[in-house]
Amino acid sequence: MKLLYYPGCTLKTSAKNLEKSAFAIMEALGHEMVEMKDWTCCGVVASLTDDDLMHHLAPLRNLIHVEDEGEDRVATLCDMCCNTLKQTNLRVKEKPDDLETLNLFMDRENDYKGTVKVIHFLEFLRDEVGFDVLKKMVKNPLKGMKIMPYYGCMLLRPRDVSIDDAEEPTILKELLTALGAEVVDNPFKIECCGSYHTIEEKNLVSNRAYRITKFAVDRGSDAIVLSCPLCRFNLDVRGKEAEKIYNNYKQVPVYYYTQLIAVALGLDPKCCGFDDHAVDPILLLKKKGVFEK
Amino acid sequence: MKKQLLKSKEIDAIKFKKGELVAEVEELCGENLFGCYQCGTCSAGCPFIEDMDLGPDEVIRYVVLDRNEVLNSKTIWICASCYTCAERCPRDLNITKIMEALRQIVLRKKIDHTKLVKISKKERESIPQLAFVSLFRKNIG
Q1: Do B105 and B72 form a contact (C-beta atoms < 8 A)?
Q2: Hey, are the CB atoms on A78 and B119 less than 8 Å from each other?
Q3: Residue A57 CB-half CA count within 13 A
Q4: What's the pLDDT tens digit per position in A12-34?
Q5: Which CATH class is domain A140-287?
Q6: ipTM, two decimals
Q7: CATH for A2-121, options being 1.20.1050.140, 1.10.1410.40, 3.30.360.10, 1.10.10.10
Q8: How far B2 CA sits from the closest chain A CA (Å)?
Q9: pLDDT confidence band for B4 (50 / 70 / 90)
């Protein structure tokens, strides 16, 4: 199966490991993931004022490029891109007048016909590959690992663009169970990590990371699994910095779900790019005997 | 109760006559602020409530009551648009959009909340891009 892929800025820089591990999984599954030829930044956050159509231009342009490639579906790895593209797609479907205005700005592009479906890579794994298929392919089960799934905001809200139940999501739980890990639930799993405040309000984000992690750690969790590159940075890096604020606090490793799938399927660990993490992710995998090297 | 808010001469200079602020907010976000019955569900679920000077419910009340000092509230900048309040509001108000409208009222007067020069080279090189793009989108007009 061919899957068209929209990367976005961060997947090409600080989240290369997320992209690389996703490509490795697709290869192992026998599917082909193809990067879009012509993509631009999506704008990261969706336009929230009714009169602000300008900020829908970038996401819409990307959707048009998907149509130009003859595809009716595009997958993202970044939660924020997924959310932004989905929200613009929804807006132009609900408000044809807005689409007409936006199309006027597309000097070099064709008009958007509204045929594209935006999906998150997790949705692809759940709905089209199936976690049961992944389960059968597991070579190194994540046995003995107690992991807390963390969803954050952008996968779940607003409800119209959610990939799962907005208040009680289970997609990562199902995935982790299929990979053989034990899941530790956490009421903070759907709470914001602090997002872009990581630039100007570091302590606020460290506090968020502490609160989210501490609950799970106190209940025996060894690690966090998530999907968003910004959540990864905030929980991993700012969480590590929280060690200086809170006594006896130790940040646990933070994994992308793609990394854990790659490990469980026994793929070359190089695709996981574990060097890019603040808290060493390999140590735990070795300790639990998932990783031999 | 008088609350201590941020101080900004630039923002103080933005004047609204009675009823104008709420009309402006409603125009920008498309929500009916008078629909809020002050249950506080938004504040109860807000992950940033501890760092805010006004709760999201108070922000709405300030706007409705023409208390223009709400534009000096830290809350509107601390809100990171996580949509939790909008998801849970029993009156189906999109509070996330209300916060954005208040930010936009300030930003559209050419008053930026983020000062770019304060971001160091080390931060520019270590923090993921998407954080910068969203910060600029939210805090710079």
Answers
A1: no
A2: no
A3: 13
A4: 999 999 999 999 999 999 999 99
A5: alpha beta
A6: 0.94
A7: 1.20.1050.140
A8: 25
A9: confident
